[in-house]
## 1
Amino acid sequence: MEQLTQNLKDGFMQLLEVPFPALEKGQIMVRNHYSVISAGTEGKTVKDARLGYIGKAKARKDEVKKVITAAQTFGVMKTYQMVKNKLESPSPLGYSCAGEVIAVAEDITEFNVGDVVACGGNTANHSEVVVVPKNLCVKINNSEILKSAAFTTIGAIAMQGVRQAEVVLGESCVVIGLGLVGQLTLQLLKAAGVKVIGIDIDNQQVALAHKNGFENAWERNTNGIEEIILQQTKGYGVDAVIITAGTSSLDPINFAGEIARKKANIVIVGAVPTGFDRKNYYQKELTLKMSSSYGPGRNDVEYEQKGHDYPISHVRWTENRNMQAFVELLENKKIDLTHIVSHVFPFNKAKEAYELIVNKSENFCGIVLEYDVKKELKNEQITISKTLHPGKVKIGFIGAGSFAQNFLLPNLKNQHLVSVATNRSNTARNVANKFGFETCTGDADNIINNEDINTVFIATPHHLHAKYVIKALNANKNVFVEKPLCLTTNELEEIKEVAAKSKGQLMVGFNRRFAPQIVELKNKLGNALPKAINYRINAGKVAANHWINDPEIGGGRIIGEACHFIDLCRFIADSPIKKITANALSSANSIQDTVSISIAFENGSIASISYFSNGSKKLAKEYLEVFCGEQSIIIDDFKTATIYGKSKYKTKLAQQEKGHQQEITAFIEAVKQGTSLPISFEECYESTKATFEVVEQL
């Protein structure tokens, strides 16, 4: 199938041949008939991509700060490669579409194959096939309105703005900004019995409003526009103002303050600054509100990804119910998009549509992409190339996000890379092209069942690790899985059972064992015992709603990350764990991520792990001290190592080195030679089990 993508480096746009996206729990697969281009949101994305590096930096100042921070941690060259990788990756466009359901996940009961639906969200892209969570899909009862229904997501944005305005039958509302969202807002307000006034700086947009039957639409620079609005509202001012404009000017927010009555609501839907003049807002006690996209549920993982609805008695209008309401208005002909749809482009000419937006060569409003639904589509792997590679290691890769692309895949150069699977079609194709895989797919089972593959790398979100580890071991593959090995004790025991029967071997990506400074530490200490280890991790704060803190997806920060540090201490001590205890800092929330862990080893060594999330970001992340045999070794953030013995000396690396390259090299060499993996399953099992014990104690 084909998907429209854009390169963030230079704005290069193409229809990319990609595999079908992966269909996961709670999702439906839809063959697009139509998708809508949001000229405002997508137009800015396209324009920003075409800027030079300085222009990009000005447009994305927050991203520049992240780059500077990364450079301080990883070094300039590594950060450069990470940024380059991000910019050169093809990114999908679009977030509002409509089409026919062609597959549903096993747990879906609300939709059936053959249903006609409207879809929204980050995966409702300009693509021949999309996969969308169920709460971002609504059924369409009348297939004749399918083209109009492709606007549903954008309609929900307009509808949420209207709901935030809290206007009722007979009241008045001004809409500032008469682009696509503004035009839809006018129609929604009219359908609700509200007296509507439209304002825009562009006379063409005002003319379009007139064409749609809104006589009270005016240019912003019309002489006496404030007096005109007062006359329309019997001298009181309007009951609400909805700003759907996109501009860097303060005029919309200040103009809203001038024309609003006392105690009115001002709602911001578009991208405008909020540094308003205080006078009107203070004297009139105006309420300024921000409208959040399609409505309640937006960007809530529990709602969007996991499909948990909000009770209607508590949240009357969620984003899904807003989408449903918009479709019903279309079906009942309360909204007419005849004049709003200004252009319809065949999907294979999508690039021309964006050139129209960027160059403004014609007047436009609603731009629709129409798909060839008679074209035969097959859910097949995409063949990239067929290259002969020496050696016996034939690799399949499941999951290839930023971490895998920056820290794992670059270390697999010159290996036989057979196939890569990711749930995002464009990522699968990009990774296959960039790193030299023969094929790409959206279905991980194609990796597991491929007899050509004898070694599987797993770098998916944490909750999928156990699933694919078990499948790969059952298929007698060698497995490298990023930490954590799994999220529950039951999963761990099942993996243990399967690993014992499998002809393949399993290793967890505990890379710090392989860091050059850890290797030097082990050599310096030799067989001396016992060892006293003090390991401080300035983990930093992570938002409570971050995926790592979700027990079902990330497993929490102890399972998701602290397993690294438990394993490293076990490696340095070179002894099984005898006892482990843990205490957490009291917190107002239920997240326990400031934790002190104490470990006693069977050979008499001890370790103290301080995993703290409440410190300053300016402090380096990791600080390791090891005391043994009248020697003291300090490793500071895997950059510097100071050794105190009969004399003192210090080594410093050019950049942080945590052992990723050495880890991959050792793993591949062991598979080639048919020897035991560099970390035994027993140690991977022990470190993982110890992590679960910490969580149980907390």
Note: The chain has a mean pLDDT of 93.
## 2
Amino acid sequence: MSGANRHRTLGWFVIGLFVVLCLKLFHIQIVDRSYRDAAENNVLRYEVQHPPRGEIYDRHGEFLAQSVPSYDLMVVPKNLPREGFDTLALARIAGMTPEALTKSLAAAKNYSRSRPSVVVKQMTTEAKLLFDEAGFEGFYTLFRTQRSYPRKIAGNLLGYIGQVNDNIIQKNPYYERGDYIGYSGIESAYEELLRGEKGEKVSVVDVRGVVKGPYQDGHYDKAPVAGTAITTTIDGPLQQFAEELMRDKVGSIIAIEPSTGEILVMVSSPTYDPDELMGRDRGNNYVKMLNNPRQPLFNRAVMSSYPPGSTFKLVNALIGLQEGVLKPGYRYECHQGYKVGKGVKCHDHPSPLNLRQAVSNSCNGYFCYVFRNIMDNPKYGGIMKGGYENWEKYVRSFGFGGKLGSDFASERGGFVPTAEFYDKGYPRWNSLTVISMAIGQGELGCSPLQMANLAAIIANRGYYYIPHVVKHIDGRDSLDSRFYEKHYAMIDREHYEPIIDGMWGTVHREIGTAGVAYVKGLDICGKTGTAQNPHGKDHSTFLAFAPKDNPKIAISVYVENGGFGSSVAAPIASLLMEQYINGEVTRPELVEYIKNMKIAYPNYEKRK
């Protein structure tokens, strides 16, 4: 190739290379914006837009939990002025000490010099306005909401929210450092609905961190979606009244609408003001509650397992009637107890009694006879060959021995021992070995929710709906289908009538054990229970529903160390049923007596 040709070829190559470079620059600068965007990212601030958490209402539409405006004070350490800033002024605005502010800033610098960090959480609107007027370089505020509980009730029911930890962040990519999540109660059970969806705001900032405006006129912004509002089944005023009655007592109250399974009241005592677990004092208050021997954070209503005591006699009576080993007219002698084997003591009452009278008088001896007849039924070859297992199936059909399936994630199932349980503990055992279960003692463990559900089953003459605490979810026509299904105990409807008559007599007849619960015109049906407590005074319990026909409320009250069922639990249940059905109580002296009653807690005090 001649020299001229080589020069010409080289020239065309240079021209072609120049054209390619020009086209590439045109593509980078005009067509492909990714490089330009990447450069602009150096002066863009991406801010998470936190949605308001969904409101929680009671069944009357009144607030139980709502979201109020709040602001987090953020800092980007690299944007702080070199000459420093007025720490004292900022601390005063933020409502904290200069030492606390300095400590928070140090933590932010250790985390990242270029990424934003929270310096002060949950500033008020007034503090945010003062901050805006002062204009501190390197700082900015981020809008979010915080929980407020206007009625100051139902702490364990509603639950609480708190900042996510590293474990939660690793398991769920939705959450980031500084986010909040429901940790218990409704706040936890319905977290995915209540939390809403985060948005994002993209702003242009200068080298000092001062916002110059939205990026691309807000084209890349994403608005947050507020959390879903929830209407609960809870009757707010009744809940508040119930908590007042349980003041200075340890225990629980559950009230259910039998026709729907809706929970009207859920009290765990001692309780707490849910606002105490919000704001800057949350950490200190949480530690105090955690170290409190009476465990206010423990929801006894769904997590405790108690011996049901004499209220369980109703279950054994129903099983006996269904199996044909008991008739309403059967009469048994009781001279202050059941005298066979080690025996079971009983209080003084007329003898002999039929079934209705035995329920009204809560006769231990009578139900020991009934229990042994069930266990030793020849049809099953005796207790060891099937009598006990048959009894256990009946008991479990009432919802005992497992979770009911409520919308409380923390619900526990109690304990009904199996035949294998006793096989391991006793080489040879018989109905006398387990005779304590005739009166709801021994190894039996039931949650207050299960006991209230038993009251609902008897009120409905044989069936129940799964108890639940949410009535309506915004944007949905119905709840989970499981809350609309009837669940039947293995007892025919006809067998409930003599039991209900006995429960009516418990409250209405002079020989009954709960005359204190009588309210004219209400037709309350109840059953007292005194559950043995190896750690101190016996527990007081009462199970009831009203009215007798077309019942509107079923209730279980359990007061630890309260003594006889008629002494504390029965009057509390009676007052709540009267308030719910009539809208008022006619015994103000009884209200004050119960409110002022303080019960010692020896089994808790020893833990200090």
Note: The first strand starts at residue 44 and ends at 49.
